[in-house]
Design goal:
Length: 150
């Protein structure tokens, strides 16, 4: 016997976010990474908003849902990507040598964790990527997409 809608348990926050992304491509609720922040903190991941407080040249670990990947023809093989977490966006610079070594993780990650060097000049903050880790499995059934130009 099927349960009536009134008898069904309410969806969890994660289920609601997943449904929002499936139908809208975004959520009006909390960002998905807010649900993962404790796990990310154990991995020593710095939230995007904290990058402004760190010194240029610092080694950092950042994470986010990949929103963009671009490889302009005029950039000599450099890839630029953007990660989004619950606190903001992080711009990545991926040199061609790193791209060659870690191509699969760079092109297939939906949730990317990056080790790199913070580059901060005036109000422009980037992370120069040294190592990419694909943590997409942490998103479970959450469907995300990025705008890729390469």
């Amino acid at each position: 016997m099927a349960l009536s809608p009134a008898e069904r348990p309410a969806p969890s926050e994660a289920q609601g976010i997943t449904a929002d992304y499936r139908s809208l491509g975004l959520t009006l609720g909390r960002h998905p990474l807010a649900l993962l922040r404790r796990r990310l903190a154990r991995e020593r991941v710095v939230p995007a908003e904290r990058l402004r407080q760190l010194r240029s040249g610092s080694l950092v670990r950042v994470a986010g849902i990949v929103t963009h990947r671009q490889r302009p023809g005029t950039a000599a093989g450099v890839v630029f990507a953007t990660l989004e977490d619950e606190t903001g966006s992080t711009n990545l610079i991926i040199w061609s040598s790193v791209m060659e070594e870690q191509r699969e993780a760079i092109l297939t990650s939906r949730l990317m964790v990056v080790d790199g060097e913070l580059q901060s000049e005036q109000d422009v903050i980037n992370v120069v990527v040294r190592r990419v880790h694909n943590y997409s499995r942490w998103l479970g059934e959450l469907e995300t997409s990025s705008r890729d130009f390469h």
